[in-house]
Specification:
By secondary structure, this protein is an alpha+beta fold. It contains five helices and six strands; from the N terminus they run βααβαββαβαβ.
Length: 187
């Protein structure tokens, strides 16, 4: 795979590497309202509890697999690039980091979106992949770049109802430390 990098997408009017799970509950409604304006992302009332539960499960699974997370919640990337994911934001911005710059002991991945892969959204209509290997969380050293390059692209897929479709068109990378991204964090 020629794309040995990861990409973090975010809204152009926001700072990169902000995680909703870290927002104080008192500020959450205002933050969600701001994010909903001018975005194709869906942040309904069930999203944050689902996201937080997924992140707790992902962290637990990563520790069980030998990972050493530093953060309570991860920073998110996709492997390579994803025009579809970038299109969720208006205007989109991105930060690219070489895959080799991510610390293996603090980096995990799922073969699809983590909410989809870890199956906590099934009761809310979020389908889980049929393939058992797509329903797990892995350490970075288990990433097969050749195989990852053969995954279908989400390009051309509509955004309408995406939150209830199988999001298995990209590899999601979870970074459990701030170290390689500190130069991009200004908060």
């Amino acid at each position: 795979m020629s794309e040995a990098y990861v990409t973090h997408y975010y809204r152009g009017d926001r700072q990169p590497f902000r995680n909703l799970s870290e927002v104080d509950d008192g500020d959450l409604d205002a933050v969600l309202a701001t994010l909903a304006d001018g975005s194709r992302r869906r942040f309904g009332p069930r999203y944050l509890p689902l996201r937080r539960a997924t992140e707790v499960r992902a962290r637990d699974l990563f520790v069980q697999a030998g990972g050493k997370p530093v953060r309570r919640y991860p920073h998110y990337f996709v492997l390579g690039s994803s025009p579809w994911f970038a299109g969720l934001y208006d205007p989109p911005r991105e930060v690219k980091i070489l895959l080799g710059d991510l610390p293996p002991e603090a980096t995990s991945f799922t073969w699809t979106d983590s909410i989809t892969a870890l199956g906590l959204g099934v009761d809310l209509g979020v389908p889980q992949p049929a393939e058992p290997w797509k329903r797990k969380l892995y350490r970075l050293d288990q990433l097969d770049l050749t195989f990852a390059s053969s995954l279908p692209s989400a390009s051309g897929q509509s955004y309408e109802g995406y939150q209830q479709r199988l999001l298995d068109r990209y590899v999601e990378i979870q970074l459990w430390t701030d170290e390689p991204i500190r130069p991009f964090m200004s908060y």
